[in-house]
Amino acid sequence: xxxxxxxxxxxxxxxxxxxxxxxxxxxxxxxxxxxxxxxxxxxxxxxxxxxxxxxxxxxxxxxxxxxxxxxxxxxxxxxxxxxxxxxxxxxxxxxxxxxxxxxxxxxxxxxxxxxxxxxxxxxxxxxxxxxxxxxxxxxxxxxxxxxxxxxxxxxxxxxxxxxxxxxxxxxxxxxxxxxxxxxxxxxxxxxxxxxxxxxxxxxxxxxxxxxxxxxxxxxxxxxxxxxxxxxxxxxxxxxxxxxxxxxxxxxxxxxxxxxxxxxxxxxxxxxxxxxxxxxxxxxxxxxxxxxxxxxxxxxxxxxxxxxxxxxxxxxxxxxxxxxxxxxxxxxxxxxxxxxxxxxxxxxxxxxxxxxxxxxxxxxxx
Length: 365
Fold this sequence. Notes:
Blueprint: H1 9-19, H2 28-38, E1 43-46, E2 52-57, E3 64-70, E4 75-81, E5 87-92, E6 104-108, E7 114-119, H3 129-132, E8 143-144, H4 152-155, E9 164-167, E10 172-174, E11 180-183, H5 186-202, E12 210-216, H6 224-233, E13 237-245, E14 266-270, H7 278-291, E15 296-299, H8 306-311, E16 319-326, E17 334-337, H9 338-354, H10 357-364
Parallel strand pairs: 3-12, 3-13, 13-16, 14-15
Antiparallel strand pairs: 1-2, 2-12, 4-5, 4-9, 6-7, 6-9, 7-8, 10-11, 11-17, 14-16
Helix pairs in contact: 1-5, 5-9, 7-10
């Protein structure tokens, strides 16, 4: 067995936050972690949906900057129980069902008990010719928890309709230097972690504003928490942190020009929900160039981010989305690169330190 690569403090934090249970609508465990890491030096605040941010006052209460990822991960909800004791599921977020067959999951009951299970699949020996080419649907899937008759799922395991489900996966460092980080829920615990690390880095430093850093809820089901969070905080500037598609895998249609992991954070010029404020975009690009921080330019025609909802809250908030290129998102395991994490944190720290009244007035008008 290969020897495990030692983790530093930042990686231990990333393991903690990705291991946490938190599909859309059930982000409480992640919110507790956010409060744990920000509560010692920030005023921790929550909106009515559960979005959680820490308030770090710099030289002035205003202007205010919101930096947030989304705390939820893609998962499922128990939709029903068959007579044989199998669990039927509804998706929480977007899934390609083919990545789910024979994968382990964990269900959390209302009492907080964790129940392990397996998404069932037929053995290849029993597949009919037409089944071998069939596109699977979520409604065709089921979870086997070891129950054997109707109601046993509840009587013996405590599982009921409405209970949340997430992938069962563990954090691991890959590659000879351990910089390839594999875990569940990078979409988008990495955004939440980055926001928290920015606040930690600015603790005790001079910055001409007040920073709100943390995580929104229910992004994967329609950017819902971003709207309430931005309304609650009412910032002058909002920056969403998310993941984006890594193009450095076999078969990627944009492999020649898309983002690659380890080559710097992605600065988005558009996605399916947001056309960023152009002056804020140029401001961040200028800082990256001035400070010698590597970056990539990103563009997505499909898929939205919290930045889209930040931008349309109240009378409009100048917004931008920064991302980390990540392989295999919306599956049990995704992979990103540690250097991209560190460089994104560095870029955001320098950005916050430069966002004074004068800069924000130029961005707004």
